[in-house]
Design a protein that fits this description.
The structure holds 2 protein chains of 2 kinds.
Chain A: H1 10-43, H2 54-61, H3 64-95, H4 102-114, H5 117-128, H6 133-138, H7 147-172, H8 175-183, H9 188-217, H10 220-225, H11 232-242, H12 246-272, H13 291-318, E1 321-323, E2 327-330, H14 333-336, H15 343-371, H16 375-386, H17 393-404, H18 410-413, H19 417-427, H20 429-440, H21 445-453, H22 458-487, H23 503-512, H24 516-547
Chain B: E1 3-12, E2 15-25, E3 30-34, H1 41-49, E4 56-61, E5 64-65, E6 76-79, H2 91-101, H3 106-119, H4 135-148, E7 153-157, H5 165-182, E8 186-190, H6 193-199, E9 202-207, E10 210-215, H7 217-222, H8 227-232, E11 237-240, H9 241-247, E12 263-267, E13 272-276, E14 282-289, E15 293-300, E16 303-310, E17 320-325, E18 329-332
Helix pairs in contact in B: 2-3, 2-4, 3-4
Classes of the chains: A mainly alpha, B alpha+beta.
């Protein structure tokens, strides 16, 4: 019996395996760590570059800053409380009730993923602002600006994520626990207290930390509905854009980074302790008939979900209004006669596409490379790849300004679409990395070994064993990055130039200048692009599942 | 094709998995690596396959040192426990895969795949996808695929462990006859002693990274060299030297030299002869009826024994019996 030599030489294989790690690592180093360290460095140096803590001392001198910090924290706490409470209610309605229309609840929860906090904020202003729709229709003196507006916008934005986390935990609780409790005579209320809630503890904690971090670092709704109620994200924006005080912006960025880091870290701890559930889930849970419970959950869901629909519908309506709020006649002029044309929308699409393609490739390479990397190398890399989750978009954006506007790389990067795409990509790197890693875990080791044993090199292992199993994760990663990049504002706000405008930035600028109907039209373009992308993703995943025999 | 392993050692993070393991396998041998989980048998197989590199030692195939040759250049066929088929390829395409990697023309691949699938009893199943095949059928496809590239050596990593008992026994027989008819040297990893006894020409029994005993199935069952092997393969009644001296001194003659504590007498359940005797010094403590045979637990002068009784018998718990043994083997403790 003769063994035929395999077609590739071992040197080429190890070359490829090495490249898999080296390229994404270089990306993380240059486009994430370097900007992040630039911000940190700037916050502790003076104009001459010498070490100083004076910037931090200045924080306390300005009475506005401690107040802004207080505002950020109080908005974060109230939003977290509201979001977790309503999110729990909706998750219960989805998994522990006999309510009809669960598909409708799920569909409504997709809206905040398509409409970023910026659009939700805009909708709130159009609906409940001083000249809002409600005021127009009823004459009531409505004023949503400030604390209530921020809490509502952020709550609506955070809801789907809380529902997702809590639902996952609810789905892991096997039906037999409820059967056992019921057979021992426990009432539905006792079952909720004794079985459901304890198993949700860590999920609720993880969800709470997530919402708190997002609210703390949110810029989109702060700039639209914040008004005179100033939060930290707004202060950074004013320092940098208004007063061109980069040192102060960097220092504030560090102040924002610390609680975000802490919150993400605590959230991780909570998630790690989450109940992984039983190996065999057993029969599906069918909630018992209980009109009181279902009625209560229906009311909770309606209170939380109706505003989402109302807010997005208002934006859609206003986008067709001739001159909001003065001329209410309907027109297409806001779309056809946009001040900057569809340019910013196309730019947003192009930028998002670049970010999604590059992100997909880089994250795939990183995860594939990590599979065979020694733990001493893999652990720190995993940490760095997940770190962006804890870094506010404004800090990433500020880092880009400091690293690439003046540094050695500024010549070919400054003001380019590439740099904006990189900023979006690395801002959302953590979630993309997590999705891809989960996908990679589906690849059976035996299959990979089989390819190697039959004469395949790294290239064949990736093509024949890894790719078929990670294709769904890759598709999800692509569309996640695409949709996030379409709506992102906080990261890219410092990077846009007169030549390179983005749709989300146009919404903000038009809103600032009072062109609300046109702002709404741009917002709707973003929402529709997101919806189309989401539809495309679902279709692709479905066909993939049909065509390929991979679970 | 002769395989020789010399002083193979491997440690993972300070924990020794293989400690200077050596053995060799002849041209058409079926070798089973047998041992409890964690004994290093799978690591040893992976070292033979080239999927894991040993820290020290030498792997030789047909006189050639292949220790540092990567898996893909070794030309071996391998079957894993499960989940090793390409889910998006048909059974035929799965079987054709190793040939495709070697640049064999498509027409040859098609013919060979059909032949191989027929050989493992799956003629006509070539167009099915793995998720349209049962577990047993999937393992047949994996087996055909492992044979596709005319491997120098066939490696089986617990290929039957994930299957139902009935299918396991059936496939076991087919693997054996296929291996015999092709004359292909085979190494199989298993923790199932029945599988090893039924399939192997040679069993390599391993414990904690070292080889305990190498021999034919008969050697290992009838002449286990250590208490571990005696216990791991079949049931063993292990009696201390002092006890044997008291009750069955005849066995002492054949005891190798050494301190009392270093040797024990191994009596297989079928080696024990029982006779109902009211004056007997053993008492039946329990009887498990198994149809063609019965297994009796005995208390014999403070020692617990298990005996197997073939044919019909009427022993009942509490009955006094006389005990004798027709053969036994001395094993190191």
């Amino acid at each position: 019996m003769n063994a035929v030599a395999a077609p590739h030489t071992p040197t080429r294989t190890s070359h490829l395996a090495w490249l898999l790690l080296a390229v994404p690592c270089a990306g993380l180093l240059v486009f994430f760590l370097y900007p992040l360290l630039s911000v940190a460095w700037r916050s502790v140096t003076d104009a001459g570059g010498a070490f100083t803590l004076a910037n931090y001392a200045r924080l306390l001198d300005d009475p506005g800053l401690p107040r802004a910090a207080l505002h950020s924290v109080e908005t974060g706490l109230v939003t977290t409380l509201a979001t977790v409470a309503f999110g729990l209610g909706i998750a219960m309605a989805l998994h522990r009730s006999r309510l009809p229309g669960k598909a409708l609840i799920r569909a409504t929860l997709l809206l905040p993923m398509l409409a970023p906090s910026l659009v939700l904020g805009l909708g709130l202003v159009l609906l409940l602002g001083r000249n809002g729709l409600v005021h127009r229709l009823t004459g009531l003196p409505t004023d949503i600006y400030g604390f209530p507006g921020l809490v509502i916008a952020n709550t609506l934005y955070g809801l789907p994520q809380v529902v997702l986390i809590v639902s996952a935990a609810l789905a892991r609780t096997p039906a037999r626990h409820y059967d056992a409790a019921a057979s021992m005579g426990a009432t539905p209320w006792r079952q909720f207290i004794d079985i459901t809630l304890p198993r949700l503890r860590f999920a609720l904690l993880a969800a709470a930390f997530l919402v708190f971090t997002e609210t703390l670092t949110d810029f989109g709704s702060a700039v639209i509905v914040g008004g005179n109620y100033r939060v930290l994200a707004m202060e950074i924006y004013s320092e940098v854009v208004g007063q061109l005080d980069f040192a102060m912006g960097a220092t504030l960025g560090m102040v924002l980074l610390l609680p975000a880091l802490l919150s993400v870290w605590l959230g991780r701890l909570a998630k790690r302790r989450q109940d992984s559930g039983d190996g065999a889930p057993g029969r599906a849970l069918m909630p018992a008939q209980h009109a009181g419970r279902d009625g209560f959950l229906a009311i909770v869901s309606l209170i939380a979900l109706l505003p989402i629909v109302a807010v997005v519908a208002t934006v859609a309506y206003v986008s067709f209004v001739k001159l909001w709020p003065y001329q209410q006649s309907l027109t297409l002029a806001n779309y056809t006669g946009m001040s900057e044309g569809f340019g910013p929308v196309w730019t947003s699409l192009a930028m998002s596409f670049i970010a999604a393609v590059a992100g997909c490739v880089l994250v795939f390479a990183l995860c594939a490379g990590l599979r065979k990397a020694p733990p001493a190398l893999a652990r720190p890399l995993q940490f760095i790849a997940s770190l962006p989750a804890a870094v506010p978009g404004m800090v990433v954006g500020l880092g880009y300004v400091m690293a690439f506007n003046h540094g050695p790389l500024s010549g070919w990067l400054h003001g380019s679409l590439i740099i904006i795409a990189a900023c979006s990509l690395y801002h959302y790197h953590a979630q993309a990395f997590l999705t891809m890693q989960t996908g990679m875990r589906q690849v059976p080791d035996a299959l990979e070994d089989a390819v190697a044993a039959f004469g395949g090199g790294t290239r064949e292992v990736l093509r024949d064993a890894v790719l078929p199993f990670t294709a769904p994760a890759a598709i999800s990663t692509f569309f996640y990055l695409f949709m996030r990049s379409m709506v992102t504002l906080s990261g890219v706000i410092f990077l846009v130039t007169a030549d390179v405008g983005l749709a989300s930035v146009s919404v903000m600028r038009l809103d600032e200048n009072g062109f609300l109907a046109q702002a709404a039209a741009y917002a709707m373009c973003v929402v529709v692009a997101g919806a189309l992308a989401l539809g495309a993703m679902r279709l692709l995943l479905h066909t993939l599942k049909e065509r390929r025999h991979v679970a | 094709m002769h395989l020789r392993l010399e002083e193979i050692s491997k440690a993972w993070g300070g924990h020794t998995v293989l400690d200077r393991v050596s053995f060799s396998a002849g041209a058409s041998d079926f070798v089973c690596l047998l041992g409890p989980s964690g004994c290093g048998k799978t690591t040893l197989l992976r070292i033979v396959a080239g999927l894991t590199e040993p820290d020290a030692g030498r792997v030789e195939l047909a006189g050639k040192d292949i220790t540092h040759v990567p898996a893909r250049e070794r030309g071996m066929g391998i079957v894993f426990q499960s989940y090793s088929l390409f889910p998006d390829l048909t059974a035929a395409a799965n079987v054709g895969y190793p040939m495709r990697l070697r640049g064999i023309p498509a027409s040859t691949i098609a013919t060979r795949s059909t032949e191989l699938l027929a050989k493992v009893g799956l003629g006509g199943f070539g167009g099915r996808f793995p998720d349209e095949l049962s577990g047993g059928q999937q393992q047949r496809v994996a087996l055909a695929r492992a044979l596709a590239a005319e491997p120098a050596l066939l490696l089986l990593d617990e290929p039957l462990s994930a299957l139902d008992p009935a299918i396991r026994a059936q496939l076991r027989g087919e693997i054996r006859s296929l291996q015999r008819s092709l004359g292909i040297p085979t190494i199989m990893v298993t923790h199932d002693q029945d599988e090893a006894l039924a399939l192997a020409d040679t069993i390599v029994c391993m414990k904690a990274g070292r080889i305990e005993q190498i021999g034919s199935p008969r050697d290992l069952y009838e002449r286990p060299s250590s208490r571990f092997v005696a216990d791991f393969i079949g049931h063993a009644n292990l009696l201390p030297t002092a006890f044997v001296r008291e009750v069955m001194p005849g066995f002492l003659e054949r005891r190798p030299p050494g301190a009392d504590a270093t040797w024990e007498l191994c009596l297989r359940p079928e080696d024990i002869v029982l006779e109902a005797d009211p004056r007997g010094d053993a008492v039946v403590s329990d009887v498990t009826y198994l149809g063609n045979l019965a297994r009796a637990g005995l208390a014999w002068r403070g020692q617990r024994l298990v005996a197997e009784l073939h044919g019909r018998n009427t022993l009942t718990p509490g009955e006094a019996v006389a005990v004798d043994a027709i053969r036994g083997a001395w094993v190191c403790t």
